[in-house]
Specification:
Length: 218
C-alpha cells in the first residue's frame, strides 16, 4: 500500500460533475484502461464523452457514477444503472442445455433478451436489480485496493439491490475481485460484445455474466 496518499471517492450527480471529470483526465483514462488485453478496444473521445453524458441525458433514474480522484486527476471510475431495458439491453446465450460453450454450440441457444432471462430466473425488475456498467483503475494505481473500495462504495449505495455484470471470459483479475465481493459466475451463460478494436477490426469477444444477489428483505 502507498502511504500518505489520499484518494477521494466522488459521486457525480450532474453533467457538470462529468465535465469536471473530463477536465481531470477521464477521457484518456477510459481509453487507456480498455486499450489493453483482453479488451484492446478503441474508443474515440466522442465515444467516451457520449457514454458518460448519457448517464445524465437519457432519462436514467438516479444513475450511480463514482470517480476516484487523486488530487486533480481521476484515476478510477465505477458506474451502475437500473437493470432496465431502456438502458441495458444485450442478448444472452445459455449453454447449460447444450453441454457447454464450443464453436459448434455457439449460437444455438440464443435467448433474445437478458431481461426475459433474469425476470424468469431471478424475478428481476429495474426496481430490485441494477447493472454494473463500467469499472476501471489507472494502470499504475492497480493492486492498491482502489477498485475494491469503489465497488464497495457502489454496493453500499445499492444497499439491498441485486447487481448483474458482464466481464470478459478471460479477465481473471476482475472475476476474482467480483467473487470476493459476493458475485457469482452464472455458469453456462454468455454474451458476445462486438466492438471496434485498436487494430481497426471489429471483433466479438465472449463475456460471462455474474450476479450478486441480496437476501429478500422481509
Ligand atoms: C480489474 C481492475 C478494475 C482491478 O482494479 P484494482 O484497483 O487493481 O483492484 P484491487 O486492488 O481493488 O484488487 C482487489 C482484488 O481483485 C483481485 N485482483 C485485482 N487485480 C488482480 C491481478 N492483477 N491479479 C490477480 N488478482 C487481482 C484480487 O483478489 C485483489 O485483492 P488482493 O489485492 O487483496 O489480492 C483493474 O485491473 C482494471 O481496471 N482492469 C482493466 C479494466 C477492467 O478489466 N475492468 C473490469 C471490466 S468488467
Amino acid at each position: 500500500m502507498e502511504k500518505d496518499v489520499s484518494y477521494t471517492v466522488v459521486r457525480a450527480n450532474t453533467l457538470q460533475d462529468i465535465e469536471e471529470a473530463f477536465s481531470c483526465g477521464l477521457i484518456k483514462l477510459y481509453q487507456d484502461i480498455f486499450s489493453d488485453p483482453p479488451y484492446e478496444e478503441y474508443f474515440s473521445s466522442d465515444d467516451v464523452t457520449s457514454l458518460f453524458h448519457s448517464y445524465f441525458t437519457s432519462g436514467i433514474s438516479n444513475p450511480l457514477v463514482l470517480f476516484t480522484y487523486l488530487g486533480r486527476q481521476v484515476i478510477a471510475f465505477c458506474t451502475a444503472v437500473p437493470f432496465d431495458e431502456h438502458w441495458v439491453d444485450f442478448e444472452i446465450s445459455d449453454f447449460n442445455m447444450a453441454g457447454g460453450y464450443s464453436p459448434e454450440t455457439h449460437g444455438k441457444t440464443i435467448i433474445n433478451s437478458c431481461h426475459e432471462y433474469f425476470k424468469r430466473t431471478f424475478d428481476s425488475t429495474p426496481e430490485n436489480t441494477w447493472y454494473l456498467d463500467e469499472l476501471g483503475v489507472r494502470k499504475d494505481k492497480r493492486r492498491k485496493g482502489i477498485a475494491r473500495c469503489l465497488l464497495q462504495a457502489c454496493l453500499t449505495e445499492l444497499n439491498s439491490k441485486n447487481v448483474i455484470l458482464r466481464t470478459s471470459d478471460s479477465n481473471n483479475q476482475a472475476q476474482l475481485l467480483y467473487q470476493n465481493l459476493g458475485f457469482h459466475h452464472i455458469g453456462g451463460l454468455y454474451t458476445q460484445v462486438s466492438h471496434k478494436r485498436l487494430d481497426g477490426s471489429v471483433r466479438e469477444d465472449l463475456r460471462i455474466i455474474m450476479l450478486r444477489q441480496t437476501e429478500p428483505v422481509e
